[in-house]
Amino acid sequence: MRKKLLSYLFLLLVVISIFSLIIKFGTQPIYSLLGHQTKAGLKITSVPEAGVFINQESVGKTPYLNGDLLAGEYQVRLESGNMSWQGSVKLNNGTETILNRELAESLASSSGEVLHLYEGKGVVITSVPTGASVEINGKIKGVTPLSVVDLPTGEHLFLLKHPEYLPRTVRATLLDKLLLNIHVDLAISEEETVNIPVPTATIQQKVLVTQTPTGFLRVRESPSVLGKEITRVKPGDELILLEEKQGWSKVRLKDETEGYVSSDYIEKK
Questions:
Q1: What angle do CA 143, 149, 155 make, to 5 degrees?
Q2: Is residue 33 pLDDT above 60, yes or no?
Q3: What CATH number is associated with residue 236?
Q4: How many domains does one find in the chain?
Q5: Residue 189: what pLDDT?
Q6: What is the pLDDT of residue 31?
Q7: Domain boundary residue, one of 191, 221, 236
Q8: Are residues 186 and 162 in the same domain?
Q9: In the predicted model, what is the mean pLDDT of residues 250-259?
């Protein structure tokens, strides 16, 4: 009788302990103790269609959906022709993470968002760049990073704007007892895209020193017979022509020395 009573008391203590854990932490610790893990989901869409790589492994094309993943952080890469995007996404137990991307040839011109759910309430919105204005259901709420706690459950429309960037709209649903985290990457406006000038190759005009009465040609500091002599060149020497003015030519020698010579004793190649 005593052994049965002790067994009942032990069982009662176990039940009370399990119930206490559920109240405090939810069911996940119990699942872990029993060797069971709640799965997480990942949904990926893109424009245009793209190949999907998760942790460097090809898993198919967009739209991609997998509801049988373990919670944790994953490296995701999307590839479509010469357009690509890569980043990390965090998956949480019992929830689905959503990744949407609009691909472009440059990262600055691409855009998208990642949505995750956590325990909590309301919505947290972040963006790149920071400081984007946020409208929720047509009402201005502030700038990113932004936290709104008093938002009711249900579907909402989020609009993010930033000077010099294209606005982006996100439609998402808030669930009871869950915090929605939205991270948005804005695409730079085409009008603000910096056009990097492409240097053009300058064709250098080369000249040859012709025969002179003295057997050499003086290179002077200024275009005048009174100009100080810098050096001398010989007939057949090749020079680079920089400028021509009133019987004188500014030239560059092979040793990068620059000066003036008489135009009468050079000829263009």
A1: 85
A2: no
A3: 2.30.30.40
A4: 2
A5: 85
A6: 44
A7: 191
A8: yes
A9: 88
pLDDT of residue 30: 43
- 147 and 239 assigned to the same domain: no
Which of 134-143, 188-197, 210-219 has the weakest average pLDDT?
188-197
Task: Report the alpha-carbon distance of residue 269 to residue 257 in Å, rounded.
Answer: 20
* Amino acid identity, position 43: K
Residue 146 and residue 134: Cα distance in Å, rounded? 8
CA atoms within 13 A on the CB side of 148: 22
Interval 152-209: pLDDT, tens: 999 999 999 999 899 999 999 999 999 999 999 999 987 655 443 444 444 578 899 9
Q: Which domain holds residue 256?
A: 205-268
pLDDT, averaged across the chain: 85
What's the distance, CA 70 to chain centroid?
27
- Mean pLDDT of the region 94-98: 93
Pairing state between β 178-185 and 111-119? antiparallel
Pair (221, 168) in one structural domain: no
* E strand segments, 137-263: 139-143, 146-148, 154-161, 168-174, 178-185, 205-209, 217-220, 229-233, 238-245, 248-252, 258-262
- Per cent of the chain over pLDDT 70 is 81
Please choose, from the candidates 106, 168, 158, the residue with its C-alpha nearest in 3D space to the C-alpha of residue 137. Answer: 158
| Degrees, nearest 5: CA angle 28-152-44 | 60
Phi, psi of 198 (to 5 degrees): -95, 120
Q: Are 49 and 180 part of one and the same domain?
A: yes
Angle CA(154)–CA(139)–CA(144) in degrees, nearest 5?
A: 90
Neighbouring C-beta atoms of residue 95, cutoff 10 Å: 19
Q: For the beta carbon of residue 52, count every other beta carbon within 10 angstroms.
A: 22
According to DSSP, residue 105 is labeled S
Q: How many other CB atoms sit within 10 Å of the CB of residue 146?
A: 19
